[in-house]
Structure formats: C-alpha cells, structure tokens
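Technical annex, item 7. During the second reporting period the consortium partners agreed on a shared format for inverse folding records so that results from different sites could be compared directly. Each record opens with the tokenized structure and is followed by the designed sequence. A conforming record, contributed by the partner at site C, is shown below for reference.
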C-alpha cells in the first residue's frame, strides 16, 4: 500500500481475504512468504507492535472490537495505549467523535448501540489513534442504507491509505480507486476502470473475470508501506 492508496479486495468466501488482513496485522503468522512494513520484514511481536502504531484494523464484527462500558472509553482506549494521559486521550476521543458526527454517542453504553452505531464507533476507535493506514473487513455487513451512506462519506473524507475487504461492489466503487481479487491464493490486480466494468457485470448477474491488463502480485510478499517516500500513485 502506498501513501493515500485506496484498495478494494474482493473474492469468494474462503479465498483468504480476512486471513490476509490478519496476516498483515500479525494476528496470524504466515506459513510461508514474508510480511513487509516500510521495506522491512516483520518477524516478531515487537515488529508487529510497531506496525500497529501506524495501521489499524476494523474487524468484521464490531463486538470483537468494542469492550469498554461506554463509547468514550472505547474510543479513548487506543490513545491511552499509545501513551497519552487520560486527559489527552479523552480530548482526542471527543475530537474524533465530533469529526465523525458521533458526539452524541460519547456517554452511551456500548452494548446498547445499534449495529450501525457500533460499526461507526469501531471505526472511531481506530481513527482516534491517528493511523497512517487502515484495514476494513466487510464494513457494510448488516448496515442500513443511511449508515452505509455515512460510512462512505467518512471514508472519502480521510487522507490516509486504506484497504477494504467487501462483497459490496457499489460500496467499493464509491470508496476505492484500485481493485484486487483473491485468486488461487494470489492477489490479482485490475485497473480503476475495471472496477466499474466489474460492477456493471455484477449488476447483471455475471461473475468477475480477468482482463488482459491484470497482473499478479508477488506471491511471497505482502507489503504495507503507508509511510513510503514514493509519490502517491494514481
């Protein structure tokens, strides 16, 4: 991932999309191949701990991410874990909720929230840590149309890189510039134009297919470099 890149990742169930995100975050260790961050191979928990200061993961199930009694405590947890004082963490959490239009949820009991509210709060818990990049696993699952529209607005307002795993073609077309598909254990890349071609095919009941211009990424390395010194790729 390059600075500011917005990637959509698709593929059938069981193709390894979620596993890829978990590998990138060090939640699973690779049986083969390498995970690279800023050009360096990640080998132990210390390496992954440093990566997690810069890249955040929004889980598919918000209940796996939210565990504090109230929303403000959940959103402040990340900054506290990064060494901020309780006062600083609370200020950052409130600012994050303000920026996302969620300030009215601050003192709500987390497990009383709706599914859509939980999803937005789980996003806030990541953004409060000011990441350089973000990974989102099926963020539109069980979202009502209004919350999905709000999520699209939030993502399009961000100036960080992100990768979204989703089966929702319309959502990917609204939020991503680059499209990858999991195929035979590899990530196959398609151009920006192909995202709209694939979306059109999906609307008419056709399955995604490869085009002459797609190319396979290296199967032995997954690179996450949001801090790359290279210019942002179009």
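Designed sequence (site C submission):
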């Amino acid at each position: 991932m390059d600075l500011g890149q917005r990637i959509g990742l698709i593929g059938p169930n069981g193709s390894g999309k979620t596993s890829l995100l978990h590998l990138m975050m060090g939640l699973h260790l690779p049986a083969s191949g390498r995970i690279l961050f800023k050009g360096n191979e990640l080998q132990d928990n210390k390496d992954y701990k440093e990566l997690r200061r810069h890249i955040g993961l929004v889980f598919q199930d918000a209940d796996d991410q939210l565990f504090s009694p109230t929303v403000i405590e959940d959103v402040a947890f990340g900054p506290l874990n990064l060494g901020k004082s309780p006062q600083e963490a609370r200020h950052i959490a409130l600012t994050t909720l303000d920026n996302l239009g969620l300030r009215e949820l601050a003192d709500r009991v987390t497990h009383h929230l709706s599914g859509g509210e939980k999803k937005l709060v789980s996003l806030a818990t990541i953004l409060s840590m000011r990441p350089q990049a973000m990974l989102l696993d099926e963020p539109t699952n069980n979202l009502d149309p209004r919350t999905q529209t709000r999520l699209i607005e939030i993502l399009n307002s961000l100036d960080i890189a992100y990768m979204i795993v989703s089966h929702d073609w319309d959502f990917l077309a609204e939020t991503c510039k680059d499209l990858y598909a999991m195929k035979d254990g590899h990530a196959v890349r398609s151009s920006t134009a192909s995202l709209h071609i694939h979306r059109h095919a999906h609307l008419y009941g056709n399955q995604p297919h490869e085009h002459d211009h797609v190319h396979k990424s290296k199967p032995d390395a997954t690179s996450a470099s949001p801090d790359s010194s290279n210019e942002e790729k179009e």
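The radius of gyration is 18 Å. The beta strands are 6-10, 34-37, 40-41, 55-58, 133-137, 161-165, 178-183, 186-190, 215-216, 221-224. All partners now use this format for quarterly exchanges.
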